[in-house]
């Protein structure tokens, strides 16, 4: 029951001010967001990859209000790519982008977001890596998928994200699996109405497994975004039944959550990618991490009590 309330708070300017001002907040945020600048995150990338892990990097920020902010977001990713070039990691360090950060919600936003994200995808390809388009709330998805289709004409390795709690997602998964795309499946972390999304956790889990089966049996490259031990075990069984090798799918988990599991899966030979966010506009990202799992919220509350 707390999840929807936290997601609503993630859109509240008042709650943003309260949470941001709390003395305990920053140390807790650092668990999930290891830095504010590219200089701070590059050593994190090097450390994770030295341990046999892979990364996807997200420059946090969304709900922008000006075209100039969308250009700044584009330039932040271009700076990141320039720094990644020196590490020579190829696809072991890719990027995730939210099209809202590239101006998708502004007037003429579809064309603006496409124009902003294309040079990022081009620059990523030039250093041997790629970009995944993150899914946001359901009203943005037709635009996201259209941009994904357009980018894949020149950069077929461009990935996208689908969310198991949405009713539409099984159909999206069939189309994407048939097209051979890179697809990250997650449960979903936005407050969505009952008209478009499952509200019950058990129903979401069932949908996740149905969609995962579609992806595993398809021609694409599934990326399993989950920390749930049961879903990880199901993934391994579905991959075995589909005849997939260990390098024909991957697990993805958030930085700061179940870190030992990251290392265990990598040690077993799985591709294990750590979703690593950085930047100063962390509030929306942080609140969704709290909403996704009660343990995250308990960690935050316990830290507040300890610090006071």
Secondary structure blueprint with pairings:
Layout (H helix, E strand, L loop, with lengths): L1 H8 L3 H9 L3 H8 L5 H13 L3 E6 L7 H21 L5 E5 L11 H18 L4 E3 L7 H12 L6 E5 L5 H11 L2 E5 L14 H17 L3 E5 L3 H13 L8 E5 L4 H9 L3 E8 L4 H10 L1 H14 L1
Helix pairs in contact: 1-12, 5-6, 6-7, 8-9, 9-10, 12-13
Low-confidence stretches: 303-308
β content, as a range?
Answer: 5-15%
**End-to-end gap:** 26 Å
SS summary, helix count:
13
Give the overall form. Answer: globular
Estimated radius of gyration: 18 Å
Largest sheet: 8 strands, parallel, barrel
**SSE class:** alpha/beta
Q: Would you mind describing this structure in some detail?
A:
By secondary structure, the protein is of the alpha/beta class. It is 53% helix and 14% strand. It has helices at 2-9, 13-21, 25-32, 38-50, 67-87, 109-126, 141-152, 169-179, 201-217, 229-241, 259-267, 283-292, 294-307, and strands spanning 54-59, 93-97, 131-133, 159-163, 182-186, 221-225, 250-254, 271-278. It has an eight-stranded parallel β-barrel, surrounded by seven helices. α10 links the parallel β6 (221-225) and β7. α12 (283-292) crosses α13. The longest helix is centred in the N-terminal third of the chain and has 21 residues, at 67-87. The two termini are 26 Å apart. The model is unreliable at 303-308 (pLDDT under 50).
């Amino acid at each position: 029951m707390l999840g929807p309330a936290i997601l609503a708070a993630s859109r509240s300017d008042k709650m943003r001010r309260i949470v941001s001002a709390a003395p305990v907040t920053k140390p807790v945020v650092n668990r999930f967001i290891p830095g504010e600048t590219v200089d701070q995150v590059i050593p994190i990338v090097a450390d994770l990859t030295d341990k046999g892990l892979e990364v996807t990097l997200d420059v946090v920020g969304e709900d922008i209000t000006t075209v100039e902010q969308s250009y700044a977001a584009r330039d932040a990713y271009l700076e990141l790519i320039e720094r990644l070039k020196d590490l020579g990691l190829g696809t072991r360090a890719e990027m995730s982008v939210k099209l809202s950060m590239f101006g998708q919600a502004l007037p003429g936003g579809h064309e603006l977001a496409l124009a902003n994200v294309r040079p990022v995808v081009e620059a990523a390809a030039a250093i041997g890596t790629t970009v995944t388009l993150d899914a946001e709330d359901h009203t943005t998805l037709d635009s996201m998928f259209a941009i994904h289709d357009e980018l894949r004409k020149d950069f077929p390795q461009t990935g996208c994200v689908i969310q198991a709690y949405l009713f539409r997602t099984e159909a999206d998964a069939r189309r994407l699996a048939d097209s051979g795309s890179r697809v990250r499946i997650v449960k979903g972390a936005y407050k969505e109405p009952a008209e478009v999304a499952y509200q019950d956790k058990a129903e979401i889990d069932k949908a996740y497994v149905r969609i995962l089966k579609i992806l595993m049996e398809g021609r694409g490259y599934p990326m399993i975004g989950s920390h749930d031990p049961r879903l990880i075990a199901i993934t391994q069984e579905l991959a075995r039944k589909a005849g997939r090798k260990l390098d024909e799918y991957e697990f993805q988990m958030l930085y700061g959550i179940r870190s030992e599991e990251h290392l265990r899966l990598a040690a077993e030979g799985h591709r294990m990618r750590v979703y690593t966010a950085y930047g100063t506009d962390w509030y929306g990202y942080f609140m969704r991490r709290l909403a996704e799992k009660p343990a995250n919220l308990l960690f935050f509350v316990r830290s507040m009590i300890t610090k006071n």
